[in-house]
Amino acid sequence: HTVNSIEEGKRILQWILNPLKADEFFGNFWEKNACLVQRQMPGHFSELISFKMIDEMLILHHLEFTTNIDVTSYTNGKRQTHNPEGRAMPPVVWGFYGDGCSIRILNPSAYLSGLRQVCSMMQEYFHCLVGANVYLTPPNSQGFAPHYDDIEAFVLQVEGRKRWRLYMPLEPSDVLARESSGNYSQEQLGPPVLDEVLEPGDVLYFPRGTVHQAITEKNHHSLHITLSVYQQQAYANLLEQLMPIVLKNAVQRKMALRRGLPLHIWHNLGLSHANSESKSRLQMVQRVQQIVKDCLVPTEREIDAAVDQLAKKFQHEALPPTILPEERVRTVFGSRSNTDAKGKCQCDYELTDQTSVRLLRANILRLVAEGQSLRVYYYVDNATEYCKYEANFMEIDPSEADTIKTLISAYPSYLKVAQLPLRTANHRVEAATALWERGLLMTEKPFK
After folding, report:
1. Which of 48, 223, 268, 341 has its CA 20 to 30 Å from the CA of residue 142?
2. Residue 340: its pLDDT value, please?
3. What is the pLDDT of residues 23-57, one digit of tens each?
4. Would you list the DSSP string of 75-86?
5. Residue 150 · residue 178 · CB < 8 Å
6. Which residues of 46-83 are buried (b: 16+ CB within 10 A; e: fewer)?
């Protein structure tokens, strides 16, 4: 209950990459090159997923084809999806598998607590959703055509063997791609930059935009997990949030942006006049460029507001935290209310000015200005399914904003409720209790 969740996320990443150090990984491979870790530890990932776990998951939970399960094949250069309608029952799924089809499980972390804990801890370090898909492929089979994705991929080989071939992006604009590609034919590909067989315990990382394909060997099936991070987490995404804010504010401040366009602009600019070298055209182009340079440079406050919008998106997308036993006895998740002889509800907790508290996770909440109001967005109540519910938030009084800032800056240390920057003890206890009852705070000592 004293650890830093960001450091815990880094520890999980280090567990995945061992013996490669995380700092070396970010220096030499992240967003640059593929990275292969072969460790001769076949049981390294075996507790996260297994054939038996998949079979039990299909029996115990209502998984639907297309929504939760994809059945795919890639033969003779043709990629096909074979999903029937309805629930994915084991006999149907294993029938497809026996016929040589690959099985892709979407969002298995919703059903597998160990995998969910890995993803929820890593998301604190990466400051974005960490997704997971599981791929089960029979021997001598390939489920997908060559393609690239819009995520940083960590392939965790759990069972069997699979041959991976990676290729350079076909176009310069595909490097660190923002959207996934369609399917490529084999004829479109050049020589692979990596051609390796993954065995149980191995890890393969490659950046978004890396074209890849994978096939099992003749006498070996394959079970692997793909962890995905940094989807839509580029400077471009920040600028998409930022520039509308900058323009809206600049229009209010700058007369130049409110002036009318020249009467003859249609006759100098546009596709029909793109080859013109007239003086009028040159002047108009230079004028627009100068207005952008003079009026649309963002301020620090505007950049802060745009980053808050990206952080708000994370709060909506993130997996809920896995509450550990030592956290449960210090949070609302371990609280149990009762009634007295007269039927009056009795809570088993009471915060005071002397209670020491801290945030449950470093990124468990985000303070965001929305128009004239202040909101605290948080992910603790999210579903395990992606964005199943609307974003969770609580509106706070402007006088309470510094309380949120104080808790954020103090993390991972505890501080007494009396240290919160509110004028009265009642207000401090009320604010702390409201956050604690939403699962956002943890007390230093068990409340029971």
Report:
1. 48
2. 83
3. 999 999 999 999 999 999 999 999 999 999 999 99
4. ETTEEEE---SS
5. yes
6. eebbeeebbeebbeeeebebeebbbbbbbeeeebeeee
> How far is residue 158's CA from residue 162's CA, in Å, rounded to a whole number?
10
* pTM score, whole prediction: 0.94
Report whether 150 contacts 232 (CB < 8 A): yes
Structure tokens at 196: 């390796």
Q: What is the DSSP string of 270-302?
A: SGGGTT---HHHHHHHHHHHHHHHHH-PPPHHH
Distance of CA 356 to the CA centre of its chain: 31
Q: Which two tokens stand for residue 331?
A: 């949070």
DSSP string, 409-438: HHTTS-EEGGGSS-SSHHHHHHHHHHHHHT
Helix (H, G, I), strand (E, B) or coil at 64: strand
Enumerate residues 6+ apart whose C-beta is below 8 A from 333.
323, 327, 439
Phi, psi (5° rounding) for residue 389? -115, 165
pLDDT above 80 for 93: yes
CA gap 150, 157 in Å, rounded: 21
What is the phi/psi pair of residue 208, to 5°?
-60, 145
Q: Which one, of 285, 291, 247, lies nearest residue 265 by Cα?
A: 285
In this prediction, residue 339 has a pLDDT band, given cuts at 50, 70 and 90, of confident
pLDDT digits (tens, 9 = 90+) for 276-332: 999 999 999 999 999 999 999 999 999 999 999 999 999 999 999 999 999 999 999
DSSP state of 390: P
